[in-house]
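Page 42, continued from yesterday. The earlier attempt failed because a stray header line got pasted into the input along with the sequence. Redoing it now with the clean sequence only.
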Amino acid sequence: MPSENTIFEVCSYLKNWFDRNQPKYFGNVSIINGALSETYDLKVGQYFRIVGSTLNDGVYQYPITTLTDETFNGAIWGMALPKPFIALLDEIETWKTKYASADSVAMSPFTSESVPGVYSYSKSSGGNDTTTDKSGTWQGAFGARLAPYRKM
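This time it went through. Structure tokens are written below.
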């Protein structure tokens, strides 16, 4: 299962919170002992978004008991992530683990470098092959596959 941070990051990038026809609550929200004080019609295992909190804005999976206690005026949005999207998020996490570190070749703007005699180098031209992507970002590597989920 993808991490809540990855879900938040990708949904923000796509401007799509998969909240259509899902429960939404607007008003005073209380988090007590690390948990939502109400169910907000969320189902066990369902992802949801907290909006308007000082300490807990983000995406979580219901139920959760590790939130920071607070009361705020905001929103709780249920999310309905399609299974193919969740699988794609897993692939993005795997790609980030492999290619998004500072030492990764994918993070370099160069595809080749030469020193003997005369210095030369080649710059990356981008691309969207998820195994050899030269753009160095998950957005470049998965952009074409994420496009159907993007909202304007």
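Notes: The radius of gyration is 20 Å.
Reminder to self: strip header lines before submitting.
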